[in-house]
Amino acid sequence: MKYYKIVLILLIVATAEMLAQDGGQAGAFLRRDVDSRALSFGGAYTSVTDGASSVYWNPAGLNGITNNEFSAMFSTLSLDRQEYFAAYGHSFGWGFSVGAGWYRFGVNNIDGRDNTGQKTKMFDDSENSFMLGLSKEFRLTDLGKFSVGLTAKYLNHSLYDNSANGFGVDIGVMTTVLEMVRVGFVVQDISSNLKWNTGNETSEDVPMTMRLGASIYPKFFPFALSVDLVKVKDSDIVFKFGAGTQIVKYLGLKACYNGNNPTFGAFLWYPLVGIVFQLDYAATKDVLQDSYIYHISLALRF
After folding, report:
1. Number of domains into which the chain is organized
2. CATH number of the domain enclosing 46
3. Is 26:34 a contact under the CB 8 Å cutoff?
């Protein structure tokens, strides 16, 4: 009973967005779209991903890294919600690449109270995923290539004086045909679960997610079009759509549909002294308030 108000606050504030997306299943933060480039594609990113963030989206995409890449995202969220993402990827050559990533979503400064309504202490609700991925590329013919990848995850959820830990695995594939069409497929959170240290061995299964995507890159025009079908266990299939174009040499715009609302984005990239800087911006609808959330990512390729 003494924690019922804490749980109520959690349900209303910390997980309301996740409830709106997939019914409040365990590990719901893992089904959020992250990285501004991916968000500006409306989450239709399974076959598009080709950088460090592939460790989250589809590990087969890590083979798009030519040497080294670092990427980080910051989001402007209200109600003391916090969201951070960072990833690093490296190509060893010979079609072999690795990546590492960290993603955090949570709520800070929650006002704890006991069953009489008296304040106890401030606490946070924090969910983290630490990821390690690898991929291998195979040349099928002179017309295409095929990649496979795997991401291993360590999961942590901290709430008040309790915490849960667990592991998960993602397996993905990607193929490119005629240098114009990519097809990607990934199964996320295979046998993932969270075990709480509450003394009664409470365990929550994280539902498996399947993503199937296709994208096209016409050779005659700087344009990309992508579609994704996303199926979370016990939920309906969600359709996502993304399109982007480069309007001048170093600047591009995107407009997409993420399965619920339209999203918008832009990117700016510039090579400087052996390093390519890319800044991505995305605006997505906030399901808790009638406003937009703004996401900014910086990627460095070197």
Report:
1. 1
2. 2.40.160.40
3. no
